[in-house]
Each structure stands twice: as C-alpha cells, then as structure tokens.
Amino acid sequence: MRHLLTTAGLPRKTVTALLDTAEALKQSLLGREVRKLPTLRGRTVVTLFYESSTRTRASFEIAGKWMSADVVNISAGGSAVAKGESLRDTALTLTAMGADCVVLRHPASGAAHRLAGWVPAHVINAGDGTHQHPTQALLDAATLRERLGDLNGRTVTIIGDVLHSRVARSNIELLITLGARIRLVAPPTLLPRDVAHWGNALASTSGDWPVTVSHDLDAALPGSDAVMMLRVQTERMHGEFFPSAREYAISYGLTEARLGLLPEHAVVLHPGPMLRGMEIAYSVADSPRAAITEQVRNGVHVRMAVLYHLLAGRDDQTPGEEV
Amino acid sequence: MSSPSGMGAVGAAGPLRQRELLSAAEVARIVARMAHQIIERTAPEPVVMLGIPTRGVPLAHRLADRIREFGGPAPVVGTLDVTLYRDDLRRRPTRPLRATELPDDGLDDVLVVLVDDVLYSGRTVAAALDAVREYGRPRAVQLAVLVDRGHRELPIRADYVGKNVPTSRDEEIGVLLTETDRTDAVVLRAYDRDQR
C-alpha cells in the first residue's frame, strides 16, 4: 500500500489486514507502562491540516509517536499557507525536508488525491471536503468488529447529514466491502441525490449496492445492529436544509426513547465532535450502548496500523501484496 | 517460523531435494529431553515460557506440558510477537503482526525462557530481547530452540538446543508441527542457487 486516499475499492483482504494489525497493536500495548514501539524510528510524518481538528490530528500524532516516528504538525493558520502558498508548494517544501508521509486534511474534495500525484511521500487522507475520511471508517469498523464480531450480513444505519459527510461516504464503501448492509436515514435535503442508485455507477460494488434510504428514523431502528450518528455540519451548509435545530432533533435526534427501539446488542457510534441535544441526547451519548470513547481509543491503533502498513515495509510493494 | 530465511520463501519450482532430519518420534524425544534440561537448570524456580510466533508458540506449550509431566515447577506460557522490533522491516514487504499474550503478572524479576523453532542469524532473538525489555525486567532470559542451524550474525547462543544441524545458506530448515502443519517433522530442503 502506497497511499491511503479512499476506502472505495480497498480490497477486503487489505481492510482485514489493517484491522488485524490494529487489533494486534492494541493488544501488544495493553497495560504497558511504556507505550513506545521502535518500529518507525527515523521516519518523519507530517500532519498538514487546512481545517480545524482535535481528535484526528491528535490521534495521528499519538499514533506516530507511539511508533517512534518523528511527527511534525502544520496547520494552515500560522504557516506559509496564510501567506498564500499553494498546497503543492507547501507539500513539496515539506517533502524536501524529508517527510516520509503527509497526513492531509483539506476542505476541497480530492485534495489528497492530487497531493499523491505531486509528492514522493506517502499520503494519508485525513478528510477531504465532503469526499472521504478513510481512517475514521477504519476505526468505526474496528469498533464495530470488537462489539459485534464479523460484520458480514450486519445492518448499519447511518443517520443525519449524509450530504456533507465524508465519514458517511468512507463508511458506506468500507462497510459494504466487509459485507454489511447500509440504511441511510436523513431528511431529503441532507441526502445526496439518487444515493440509492449509486451502485450502478460504481465499479467497486459489481452491481450489488446494499444501501437503502429512508426518512423515518423510528421505523429504521428496530432492525439495526449499529447506528452511526453524523454531526450536522452547519459550517458546510450554505442555505436552509431544515427548519430549526429543534425540529431536526425531534425528527432525527437519537433520544433515550429511540435507544429503546434498538435491539439489545446494537451499538451507537458517533465520529465526533458531538452536538449533544441536537443529533444525540446527553444520556444516549453516555450510555453503555454508545461506543464513542472506544472509537477514539481505536482511532490511535487504526492509525498506527495504517502508518505501519505504509511506512514499515519495503517501498516497492503493490497493493494487496503486503498481506 | 520467525527467522527471516529459516523456511520462508519457497521458490516457485520447489526444492531440488528434501530430506527428513527428524521424524515425529525424534521430535517428541528431543522436546522431552529439552524439558528435562530446563528442569535441571531452573528448578525449583518456575519459568515463564515465551513462544515466538509462529512455531515457537506450540513448542513452548509442548515444553511446558512435558515439564509439568516430569514434575517440574509449572511454567506459565505466553507468546511474544517480535515483528515490531525487527531490524529488517524495511528490507521486506510489510509483515503481518501476530498475537502477544504475556502473563498477567508481567515479566519483572521472573526467569524467562524464549522458545523458537530455528536459530539462524540470531536477529529474531535480538528483536525478542528488545521486546522483552519493553514489558519488564526479567531476572534472567534463556533461549530454547528446536534446531540450531548456525550462521549467526550476532553474538547470541541458545541455552537449550534440540539438535545442531550444519547447513549451507542455500538450504532451508523446515520445522513442521501438528498444531500448524498437521504433522511433526524437521526437514532440510536444498535449493538450486539460481532459484532462490
């Protein structure tokens, strides 16, 4: 594996290898006083963030440091980007200084893909616009696998602002690869157009597109093995998508009453940051059904696994060969 | 097999010759002898046996079973994956990680016996020593291997050796164990120099 840009078309074998590596790393660090592995000594990882982030950036930084990589953090404000430098020039500057891997977050969809064509370094997409956020989908899958076991045949309901959500896009592709079925529940204004028929246009799914769409949350909950709440991304909303926050919370918020509609084993996920009282009730976010802190914890191990697969081995391998 | 070229890549054309060095009965006898040697050197102190994946793990369990059977102090068995500590990671495609399962009480002040199937360059053992240090400070660390095939690249030797087998670098030692290979045997495979 050279880059991690998208979950679309990622072979199941590669996904499983990444999740297995994350699990092995988690296990090998469990209960240790010194959480430091020598594996990526001498490798330099740069996080380049053009959008604000707490958990993703911190998670990558911790993942790199626990594997002894040198991690340099750069954010758009306070760097040469603020002086007008282009993404390409910034990235070339950083690789000229010896960055082996660039972790990019950018508001433009496709930015990581462009970057991968410009620099010799490995590129990890840490979120590009409304397109993809592959490590989030991997950590969600790791968390679901821990709680539910094999995801084959499981139903995952994704609720909320699907339209603006790179988390949803990455998860849909990845979970389908792992054999899960997807339900999207959202107001019509927050769903991408024609999403129920995307399968016809995507080569990666070979015809079968196990995604259904609904606007009725209460009806979708009983058959769900997991629900994934999405943050309402007001920063990307230029226009009116729903009448009021209160009305959104009433129709699409995961309340205590709705939690009761879920099967006993069902897991509640949220990629964070959460808007409590909006898409998820206070008590639901703190309930034992919610795996939100586990998601964050697994995020570090999943990102360690990605760094391991990109940076630890010999460079000349082709995707799929590493397993 | 954890050693980089102990068994590893089998050429597309297969080995030129394959010769059985140890039969199932001989493997069993050797494991029993090693168990006796471990008891002689360590009793009454109980040891922590750490198997190095893949085939060091079943070997560690077999040695522990024999030690119990022969009345030695009951060993604790764990597994130690050394992949993350290897010094040759960058020379090969990404290696999958294996499980690491250590005793709940950690490794501080205990007698650890590392168990692997083949001792070759010594690099796996060096990585294992680095890994052990991350988990604690054992009182002492010893090494048990089923086959020592020579060609050391580091100043490392085994405390318990099942069998010394002089080899050339073109050859491979294959350790087969029922737990992983459905049969017990040790074989020597010779390759054409051009095939490897």
Task: Write up this protein.
The complex is a heterodimer of chains A (323) and B (196). Helices cover 36% and strands 14% of the residues of chain A. Chain A is globular, with a radius of gyration of 19 Å. Chain A is of the alpha/beta class. In chain A, helix 1 (12-29) packs across helix 11 (292-311), helix 5 (134-148) packs across helix 6 and helix 5 (134-148) crosses helix 11 (292-311). Chain A folds into two domains: 12-132 and 296-311, 3-Layer(aba) Sandwich (Rossmann fold), CATH 3.40.50; 134-295, Rossmann fold (3-Layer(aba) Sandwich), CATH 3.40.50.1370. Chain A contains eleven helices and nine strands. Chain A has helices spanning 12-29, 55-66, 87-96, 111-118, 134-148, 166-177, 217-220, 245-252, 256-259, 282-285, 292-311, and strands at 44-49, 70-75, 101-106, 122-128, 155-159, 181-185, 211-214, 226-229, 267-269. Chain B is of the alpha/beta class and 196 residues long. Helix content of chain B is 26%, strand content 26%. Chain B is built from four helices and eight strands. Chain B has helices at 24-42, 56-69, 123-135, 178-181, and strands at residues 17-22, 47-51, 76-79, 111-119, 140-148, 160-164, 171-176, 185-190. A five-stranded parallel beta sheet of chain B has the order 3-2-4-5-6, with helices on both faces. A three-stranded antiparallel beta sheet of chain B has the order 1-8-7. In chain B, helix 1 (24-42) packs across helix 2. The longest helix of chain B has 19 residues, at 24-42. The two termini of chain B are 18 Å apart. At the A-B interface, helix 1 of A face helix 3 of B.
How is the secondary structure organized here?
The complex is a heterodimer of chains A (323) and B (196).
Chain A: H1 12-29, E1 44-49, H2 55-66, E2 70-75, H3 87-96, E3 101-106, H4 111-118, E4 122-128, H5 134-148, E5 155-159, H6 166-177, E6 181-185, E7 211-214, H7 217-220, E8 226-229, H8 245-252, H9 256-259, E9 267-269, H10 282-285, H11 292-311
Parallel strand pairs in A: 1-2, 1-3, 3-4, 5-6, 5-8, 6-7, 8-9
Helix pairs in contact in A: 1-5, 1-11, 2-11, 5-6, 5-11
Chain B: E1 17-22, H1 24-42, E2 47-51, H2 56-69, E3 76-79, E4 111-119, H3 123-135, E5 140-148, E6 160-164, E7 171-176, H4 178-181, E8 185-190
Parallel strand pairs in B: 2-3, 2-4, 4-5, 5-6
Antiparallel strand pairs in B: 1-8, 7-8
Helix pairs in contact in B: 1-2
